[in-house]
Amino acid sequence: MDPKVNGQLQHEWGWLIAIYLFLGGVGGGAYTIAAINSFLGKGAEFSTTVGLWIGFPALLIGTFFLILDLGSPTKAILAGMKPGSSWIARGTWIIALFMVLSFIHLVLHHFTNTPQSTMNLVAAAGIVFAIGTMAYTGILLSASKGIPFWRTGVVPVVFVISALVTGHFTVMLGMVLFGDGEGIRELLATVMAKEAVILVVLEVLAIFFFLHASFRTPDSRESAERILKKTSFVVGYFVLGLALPLALALLLLFGMADSSASAVKCVASNAALFGLIGGLLLRQGVLVCGTMPTLNIGGFQFRRIARPKDPKAGIGTLPPQ
Predict the structure, then answer these.
(1) Which residues contact 280 (CB under 8 A, 6 or more apart)?
(2) What are the pLDDT digits (tens) for 211-231?
(3) CB–CB of 91/98 below 8 Å?
């Protein structure tokens, strides 16, 4: 990154928001995978249990990072005001309702003998609000007119698919840590591996279309070029966060039919860890590479500059006498 033009980058949202986006995606994605697998019968029941135990806590922890970025719990309470005109307010209600539904689903699944028909209704409602939670962060970014890189309908699609990927890998990691026996080995090497391959391929397609769309206009092209010049993003996300997990998931699916449970767990845990790292780097890269737009007025180009990090920088004051 050229330090001479860092003023053109947005500085309002950084790592705190990236962690919130990541944990919110993990929570929504893990719950969605758990709820979908709950329809597959007893064979996938353990993945449902793990996903439900991840979904609600991950989103709750992520909300703390959001409040930390806001600086005051009072601001978080006011965030739900005016849902008719504010995506932040709509997202606040969507997330709150999803947290309630995911908590209810966890309690019903783990502590009661609720009929399966009722559980299916709760799961269906939870999936709707989980998808809303995953999509909301992307919609919020795409509604930010000041950052051309975010102002595209592909952003919510990328965030939803990436959230499903990270949620799925978190469920896989939880199964490795807390599961045991031949049943877990079979589940990891079949259903979970197949889901991982499909989801990672979808994420590859989504990020390709996102970057392709970003190169179509000069302002968003600048951000796309910046993110592709970041070694940490190219290596950490494309190589370690996408290519390696995809290769390991394919190995699980097609090359480990006769392998031991410990070998399957080793491959699955590595795929999950690298996939989670990639999901975090994706959100951080999209945030920090957002550049201010260039305005063309009367043949002249004007660049809007971000507020300086140092409040004593002296911008807007008279020069010393």
Answers:
(1) 18, 19, 22
(2) 998 888 877 888 888 899 889
(3) no
